[in-house]
Every structure is written in C-alpha cells, then in structure tokens.
Request: fold
Amino acid sequence: MRRKLFCTLMAVMTILFFADFIGIPLKDSTMDGLIGQSGIITGKVTEVQYKGAEKYNLEIDIYTFNSRSVRCREKLLLTIYSDLEEPWNYYNELISFEGEITEPSGQRNPHCFDYKKYLKSRGIGAVSSADTFTVQQCGLTLKEKYEKWLFRQRCMFEKELTAETRGVIMGVLFGDTTFLDEDIYEDFRNNGTAHILAVSGLHVGILYSLYQKASGRRNSRGGLILLALLLFSYGTLSMWSPSVTRASLMIAMNVTAKLLDLRYDMLTSMSAVAMMLIFRNPYVIYGAGFQMSFLAISSIAFIRPVIPDKIPEFLAVPLAVYTGLLPYQIYQFNYISLVSVAANLPIVFIAGYFVPVAVLAFAVFITSGNFGVLRPVVDGMTIMITEINKLSTLGGYGSIEVVRPPLWIVILTEGMIFFASSEAFSIMKIRENFKRIVFSVTAIGVLACMCGYFTYSPITRDQIVFVDVGQGDCIHLREGRKDILIDGGGNINFNVGKNTLKPYLLRNGAPDVDLALATHLHMDHYKGLEELSGEFDVKKLLSGLTAGKIVKISDNLLIETLWPEHIDPHTGQEENSQCSVFLLYFYEYKILITGDLDEAGEKSIIEKYKGTDKLDADILKIGHHGSKYSTSQEFLDAVSPDYAVIQVGKNNYGHPAAEVIEKCQKKGIIVLRNDYNGAVGFSLKNDEIHCHRMIDRKD
Reply:
C-alpha cells in the first residue's frame, strides 16, 4: 500500500502535467465566460493582502455580475488602489465594485515566471482592479465571524511590532513576508532557510509537539477539540498555505491512526493528502509551496533511512531534505546553497523555541492588547535569527548562482536519487534482480526524456530574442557561447535588472553577459542594464556609440553603429533623434535596431545613407515603442523589412500607434509586439527566418 499510493500519486501528477501541456483543461472554469467583460461585480472577500502603500489584493468569490447570479469555481483577484485603514473590516464581507474581468498574464519570457499558473495553483482564475468598492450587508456564520476576528487580531498585532523586527516575526509566525527587508529575505533564500518564513510543516510540527507534551500524549475528547481549534486557527492566520494544509491533514491522520490503533506511515499519509489537494484543485501541482512541501517529506521518507546511523538525527534529517531538494532548487531558483545544512541547524533550533514564544506573545496580545514582558524576548530572538542567518551567508560566498539545467536532467536526477534510496532498489539489489533495476532506470530515463521533449520551446534556442521587459527595449543575442544584450529596459518602481533580466539569463543558459550595448541613456533602455551590472557578471557595458563604430562578435555576427554622426557632450543623447542605431549582420541576415529614433532622426539617417542599401534589413525593431512620431513611411520604405517588432508594454502614451501598425500591414510586414506576444524570437541559421512567440494570439 505504501509504495502503491505513492506511485499512484506520481502517475497522477505526470498525467496532469502532460494533459495541461497539450491543452486539456485540468479543471472546468465558469470564469472563462466573464473574461473581457466589464460591469458591477459582487462577491465575498476570502483573503486580504497588503501589497504596499495604498495597494491591497482581495481574493473574491464572485456571487453576481451585472445583477446576474454566477457561481465560479475559481476566485477573482481584485487589486484595490486605495488605503484600507482597517483591512480586517472587509474579511469575509460581501463587497460590490465596478471593473473589468481580465485573464492573468501567462509566461511572457522563456522559462520565466508564469503568473497565470501561479494564480491557478491558488484557485484564482481572473484578475481585476478598482479604486473603490462598497460593502454590502450580509450575515456571517459563526465560523466566518471567528475567522474575521482572527484576521483582525493578526493585523493589530502587526501594527504593534517594531519596524526592525516586523518583517521576520510576521514571516516566521504567519508566512507573511510583505514587511520583510529584501536583503534579509535574500539571506534566508541563499542559505536555504527561507522555509521558516513560509509557515512550513516545521511550524505546525512544533505546535503539535507542544500539544503532545502538554497532553501527555493522551488523546482525550477535550484535548482533540483543543488540537482541532489550534490547527484551524493557525491555518486561518497563515491563509492555509499548502504546507500548513499538508501538515495539518497529516497530523489529523496521525491522531486518527492512534485512536483506531492503526499503523501510521508518513509516506502514505503524505500521498493521501496530496491526492486530496489535487482532487480539490489539480493546478495546485504548479505551486512551488506544494512541490517543495511534498518533495521535502518524500526526501525524509526515502533518503533519511539510507543515511548512516552514525550521523545524528538532528543532522540526518536536514541532510536528507537538502539532497532531495537540491536539483529542484537549482532548476527553480538558480542557486546552490553551500551552507544550507549548517545554517539550518541553529536556525531550526532557535525556531523550535521562537515559534511557541511568538505564538504565546500573540495569545497574550489577544487577551491584553499588548505582549509586555514577552516583547524583549521576541525581539531578541528575532534579531538573533537575523544575525545568525546573515553570518551564515559568509559575506555572499555561502551560495553560488547557476544556470538552469534542462528539465529532463532534473527529472532524471531526482528520479535516480529516490530510486537508489528506495526499499524496492534495496530488495532488487539483494536478490540480484539486475533486469528489474535496468528496466526501472530505463523507465525513469524515458519519462525524463519525454518531459524534456514535450516541454521544449524553440524560442530558447533562437539566436535573437526580443525580451519582454514591459514598457522598454531589450534584445538578447546568442552567438556560440557568447551572450549580448542591446538595451535592458527599466522602470522607476521595479528593479528590471535583478527581477527580470537576471532570472531570464540564468534560466536560458547565460552564466554571464559578454557585451551590453545601450542605444541611449533613457530609463526604459539603460536602467535595466545598470541594475543588471550590479547583480550579474556583465563583462563590458558600452553606450554613446556613434556612426562607424563596429563591434565584431564572431565571423557570424557583426554590430555596426549607423547613427548618430556625433554626440554633443553637453546634451548627450537626451533627444531621441540622437540615439544610437545598430545594424546587426547576423549570418546572412540584417537586423536594424533603432532605439527611440524619431522621424527627425529617421530623415537624417535616410539622407546619410541615400543611394545605398545600408538601411535595408530583414527584421526591424520599430522605433520608440511604436510611437506615432516614429516609423515614417519613407523610413519604412528604405528598410523594407519582412518582420517588424514593437517592444512595448502597458503604458499611458498610446503606444503603439494604430497608424504605425497600419503602415506595416499595408506593406505586408509581419508585426510582432511584446505586449501581445510576450518574448519574440528568431532562428537565423537555416535558409529562412523562423519566428517564435511566447504567446500566439489569433487576433
């Protein structure tokens, strides 16, 4: 039974992955009929999340749309752009607002974050936004009133915490990292200790251990009611993350087994809980919390027994978890922690005391409105955890960043690790049944190769990729082992270099950037490159290039600067007409990169190269995000491309202009744009250009 249920779980997850890949919905959604429609929406708030100054996310169960009753199996994520002074007042309440229901954005760059899948893993099928909403009168059940009261206490508790300790305490106690300093979170992530900030099974296990000690391991009726209330309360306060749900259900199974005098098996229990969660929402398999939680338990069940008994238990368990999670962490997060096992020893030890003390402080706060004498204890332990974790980073040398390996290698490695540590392998080895061993290894290899084949995307091997960086430009060139960037986007409210370019490069096989070129220094072209240089190995960053400058990358790639003729040292390249224009000679093809070149600049560059075919190109990067002040008919005639790419995101400038697209369509030019298609790639090695899009829109 132990092996069968686990194998059944693996088979179900594999089938679901392949079914989703070929386009079979894993779960029927009544939300699809509302996508793209605007109107008055009424629904119940099931979760409130603070997302920064005057911004909140509310999860909504939709009840009516334009006064028409609807029942959606998925929730709506509503972003409210206003300050909710007392957010707990809206928890479990019925609200009404006016807005448009839109589909979440999917994966926009190869191997990068898929927001749509992430939301689906949380049971959310659509998004909307509003500035205001109204609260409707509705009656709450006793359970809903209790949940609302708990959420109110959590919010009030958070306000009582100091700015220095708030982020860590809210993270450890409730899994809320909203208030956590980014550098501190990076330390936890790089040390492999971030699980204590996500309310993992560790937290629930600590609380269960305390209950067992307090009850003397006797399961009386009153004790069981108290345990159920404790688990329900903590699950509600932590918003029922997958790890908390998994741990709570496994504890319930453990208690039930004891009451019925049945044998409890951790692997069987984990498999049963996973099947329950998948049955409720099949898309949960895409959640990182689900994947890591169940992978960690599997690692303890499989790998811990084969670790020599000479290694003490407090070291053997984290070593088993580290071994099982390592390939996954490399693939998912692009880093290897060199200090994970060592760092977890003191952090988990302190957490074993910190969690119950923090829970006690919260309980005291609920009853008295403050946590008095416990404040210095909680603050002191928080600072201790933070400082120990900071020291464990070894000044940044405690982890190394790595490029993402192919999926088939990760699956093959994980499969071999778990097979080699399984009871089945031990039995085959003892019985010298080498045929079954070879068959099992072959089956794992075939499955890994199938996953690699079915999830392969050709854009990941294209020589030129127009990266989706929102409202900005970024072109990635691949030539042999060399990676070149032209522009890097940029946003005043978002670190594009760290949060977009760096993950994109690591997940697409680029360990460094050999050369970065900037067309000019405007924020949406240069800021991302500047940010990337502080986070990544950018060997050379050049800007201010003028006509005649040639950079030879290889025999197959030459970059020539066509414009401007010179740059005024006083004004620089502030005027769009003065931005650098690059012509790429890539194999036998020509690609023209125009930055923010406007019509004045286009007129000058046409005049300069009049009588030549210098401007003639196969692919044109449309100037200034498709602005109506760029891409004149005369310039389009001079270039006469087969493809035109518009690097544009959500904006208030009216980019791209309809007349620019119309000009291209009249000339039979294929128009591609990042806001519609996500990243756009071109394969240039064959006799013809092959274009690939991350999002293939029929409209």
